[in-house]
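Deliverable D4.2, example record:
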Amino acid sequence: MVYAIIAISAFIENIFPPYPSDTIILAGAFLAGTGDLNYVMLFTFATIGGLAGAMVLYFFGYSKGRSFFERYDKSYFKLDNMEMIENWFVKWGSPVLIFSRFAAGVRSVIAIAAGIGKVPAGRMTFFSLISFCLWYGVLIGAMYMVKSNWQKLVEIIKSYNIILVVISAVVLTVWLMIVYSRNRTKK
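Output generated by the structure prediction step:
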């Protein structure tokens, strides 16, 4: 039952990013450290749930296409964010998918943008799987290494997520200001 909760939690976090699945994964890793759960099963179920959630978003973006999101600009996510991520795909390619788990705040948008951009499903699955394995490997591995100091790890993860969200917001704001000023000078 706990493994199912972990998989569902990882799935939900992709669909509803504020959901704290990383904290739930860390709690699962703590339970694995006490012997109540198995590390391999925890890792497997977290990865399956996370990958399933990312693929749902990918296929949603793939099937609806750009025009759907243009109609709902500002409702679900900003088109500016999608364009920024599309530019990331052009500039960096597959590493965007690999490191998407490490970018709090844009994880879900990356999966949708990959679908809209018609990234091949096999490529999306493969590189997203690598991304989830790396992310959950780091989370679970870190908890394994600091079993007795798990509260410190939770604080580090919270700080990491806050710092990434702030950095992402600053970068996005600067980028939008540059785009806005370029468009303004063209007129």
